[in-house]
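ok so i was messing around last nite and threw this chain in just to see what happens. nothing serious, just curious
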Amino acid sequence: GEPRQRRRLIAELVRNAPEVGRDIHSGAVLAKAIEYGDRDDQLALARSLVMQEGLVASMAKTRHGSGAAKALLEALEGEPEGDEAHRQLREEAGALRQRRYGRAVVACLGAETASKAKAKTCDVWKASSFSRSSTRESNSWPEAFSHVSTEESACGQWPHTFCRTTTGGSSWSDDSGF
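result:
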């Protein structure tokens, strides 16, 4: 839509953030509004969701809400409200890790924290370009993901995330049954 239409829609979403954020299907709308709104509108919508204690964590547990939570984290990066969003999600990290979509959001927290601290390298792969047999043959997970640029963050590509720490440990998060 036109910028004027987007602003009007986002203004309505901001006004109704608590109700919209609780609806399991509206997460897709929120994610797109954050993605396509201008910077001021992105911040206004993201801030309105973070101001509702527990709403972001609740959204992060659902299929569509997890996309909105990831878009919100990206929009608020470097903003004080971004720290608040991280705090709320970290407080619920245990519950989020028990949910399929929550794990993807927790992976975003780890990837963002790691990039800030330069402690981790996280690469992501797309299921369509990766096969189970190729990992068995190569038995080398990091090389299997080398085709993915580091610009593609865990936040952008769900559900497959491989993270390698600089201390030599590694972890694999996969909900596809591989």
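not much to say yet. Residues 22 and 58 are 8 Å apart (CA to CA).
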